[in-house]
Amino acid sequence: MLNYFEMAASQIGTIFRVPRENPELMEAKLAAFTRQVPIMYALVVVNTTALAITFYGTAPHLLTMYLPAAFVAICMIRMLSWLRARNITLSLNQAVEKLTGSIIFAGILGVAFSAWSLSLFPYGDAYSKSHVAFFMAVTSIGCSFCLMHLRSAALIVTTLVVVPFAFFFGSSDNTVFTSIAFNFVVVIFAVLFMLLGNYSDFEKRVNSEKALRIKQAELQVLSDRNFRNSNIDSLTGLPNRRNFFAELERGIVNTAHTGGLLLGILDLDGFKPINDIHGHRMGDRLLVEVADRLRAHLAPHVFLGRLGGDEFVMFSEQLLDPDAIAEAEESIENLFDVPFEIDDITVRISCSIGYADFPDAAKTAQDLFERADYALFFAKQHKRGKAVRFSAEHEAEIREASSVSRALAGANLEQELWIAYQPIIDAETRQPASFEALARWKSPELGNVPPMSFIVAAERSDMIGQLTPLLLRKALEGAATWPEHIRISFNLSAVDVASPLSILKIIAVVQQSKVKASRIDFEITETAVMGNLVQATEALNALKTLGARISLDDFGTGYSSLSCIRELPLDKVKIDRSFISKIETDSAARLILRTMLGLCSGLGHDCIVEGVENSEQVDFLRREHCRFMQGYFFAKPMNIEQVGGYLASAQSSMLVGRTAG
Length: 661
Description:
Layout: H1 2-15, H2 23-55, H3 61-85, H4 92-120, H5 126-146, H6 151-170, H7 175-231, H8 241-255, E1 261-269, H9 271-278, H10 280-297, E2 303-308, E3 311-316, H11 322-335, E4 340-342, E5 345-347, E6 350-358, H12 365-382, E7 387-389, H13 392-409, H14 413-416, E8 417-426, E9 431-443, E10 447-449, H15 451-460, H16 464-479, E11 487-491, H17 494-498, H18 500-512, E12 520-525, H19 526-530, H20 533-546, E13 549-555, H21 561-567, E14 572-575, H22 587-603, E15 606-609, H23 615-623, E16 628-629, H24 640-660
Parallel strand pairs: 6-7, 9-11, 11-12, 12-13, 13-14, 14-15, 15-16
Antiparallel strand pairs: 1-3, 1-6, 2-3, 4-5, 8-9, 8-16, 9-10
Helix pairs in contact: 2-3, 2-4, 2-5, 3-4, 4-5, 4-6, 5-6, 5-7, 6-7, 9-10, 13-15, 16-18
């Protein structure tokens, strides 16, 4: 029984208190209350004035003048207070205090007006007494409707009016008043039922709107997260490729008629070896460090993003002055002079940058990006670690490359491609020890196309996968007619060593040829293998397992040649022609070349020097015990028909030499 009363008391307490735990509901109540309370006070003022006038002259002045005047003044003050509250933003505690005060004042109001109106009853005639009943009924109903959004206040006012009204008029000897009391109680219960129903609907609507706002907020958070995921690089926190192109398009539109825009693509030199050797965790840490360093260095007006991998992008609508551009290029290059310290490991890298400006270099975002990318490609090939700005010469190269790509795509590769052979001479026997197979293309449309042009075009268009097996087959067909001791050297591209499928095709061509794998040297460049050192090592080991030998071409021109020699399964090293060209006049060049020859000898690798063009160079190399040489001094590249004559001539020269001896 005690629990029942406690539950009932708790429910009554819930009805008569302000819901502090539901700020949204409380805020809605306050907003509705602020609109309706002034109307309630206006209603009370009018009804009070009317009742006072009815009894004026029959009841004492206290009841008809002074008390009504006081009530009207209090109501006017409260009405003005609530009107001012419309323009004031209240805190949660202030709102609760104001609504709680309204509940208390509603009780006081109900008691005061009930007592005052009933005190007038004895002084009036039948009509005046009926006005008292009318005043109490109409005023209580009107106040209940005005207070409907604050349930506790409405119930208090109604209770404090209905109970005295029912007892006072219900106990009257006058049947009319008794009927009025009964009728009023019935009506007020109906009104209360509607008020409570409306309040419940109001509360549900507010809570529903709250739930809707929460859902919308959740959806907005999800939308923001999706936007971030689709526009922000998760590793570095920089704008990603998608975001970059959207911003670049917007930037070009903004500056199309007012100025220009400078776009730069930045690629890290030496990142992939670090990633391969130390693992992806180290690579990711390095990328984050690079992003942080660039972000801290670049001005706020420069857009900085990450395209993917080790490529970053930046553009600005303000960097257009040539001096400012040169200063920016130098500052970014210098930014990488300071090594990165990651997990007690010192990492040194540089960066190559390709620049292009709008509208001079291109008119669209895509074309501008391609121009900057070409400038970056040129920098990686010729000025590693430097910035290269797209120029008219580059534009001409792009047009030429486009022509080559189109012609290559429509070429009859079987008929148009052929192999030239250049001998590699053994200094001990002065006889050709090997021939390097050199790709040639005679296009019906373009004529003789330089190898670097169509090989690069094939790599960029993914046609290299067709060219390499075809060229290797042709090269081996020629080598099959040579003496068994003559080797053949064949160049592989970066795409070849990066693709397990390409290596399988190469192995298949060797196995189907009439040339033993042990007679084949596969040449690779440092640039080709450093893109993916792990995959390149696996590919080269597969070729060595076949029986072929591996040669590192262009040694000394890359950025980490020593690491290549140490980590790759090499048999031979070809020293680039740039190291032999100045030995006649440059003592430093002689020292460098001598050191490189000694390094190869110490590692047990055969050494071939390219670009030998005169007897002085030959004599120097012989004195330094360099056994293998290649260059125009011995022979220029020749077709397969000329190789037979060259071999016969070399054999004859050797026989003549022996006879003379």
